[in-house]
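It is worth pausing here to work through a concrete case rather than discussing structure prediction in the abstract. The textbook approach is simple: state the sequence, then state the predicted structure, then interpret. We follow exactly that order.
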Amino acid sequence: MPGVFNLSVDEALKDAAEAAKLGLGGLLLFGLPAEKDEQASGAWHADGIVQQGLRAMKADRALDSLVLIADVCLCEYTSHGHCGVVNKKDNSSYEIENDASLPLLARTAVSLAQAGADVVAPSDMMDGRVAAIRAALDDGDCANTPGLAHIPILSYAAKVASAFYGPFREAANSAPQFGDRRSYQMDGGNFREAMREIDEDVAEGADMLLIKPALPYLDVLRAAVDTFGLPTGAYQVSGEYSMLQAAFEKGWLERDRAILESLTSIRRAGADFIVTYFAQHAARLL
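Step two, the predicted structure:
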């Protein structure tokens, strides 16, 4: 994606410093491990790449104004690219093991919180993940790890099996090696399913909600804000960013106006906060 890079920890600190100077509210951290395996061990290892980044950022007092949000998922860390444990029966048949994935997701959330995450953000869409993470954080608070019971959960409560994730998956080398994610991510045409998924996450203890992607699902965003009353954001994903960048490169759209108009539409639909790759550019415009 133009202008977006995978960063080492030292370079990420420089980027974070720029974000703080621009007055951004926070950062959503993703990681690329040196190696991947079927148990996604890079996601929950105490010395994982995001854990290293969190500790470094928390040690830098110049970054105190930034809320550090850690994505909780397994797809970037699994050798097969799925967001949960896979039972592959043969070359053409497999099953995502929802319940077997929950302990790994909970372990990941605790590890990230221990490393300094202010908020953990499960994006996997496994059923029951919010309850499992809440229980694990609360248990961690009792196990000589002060403060974990107060770590908020930002749930990707309505994450659609979308065509707009392609550029991110290529950059993170996290595309599924077989099959797709439609069995656990949402059907974009089913509005009622979106509301049920959000309702379940709220009941399990989600503190905040995130709608993903943003622009194709502004109706879901508006309904979530009106119905649940929790702090709710939207994620302007890699495909949304990249198609605008392509139009800019062709000279088809005016860059600054189009960026602000796209973000304003998300805000107008009710987003309390926006996750976007345009954040630094937009902050300079504002």
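Step three, interpretation. Residues 98-115 form the longest helix (18 residues). The domain at 9-212 is CATH 3.20.20.70 (TIM Barrel).
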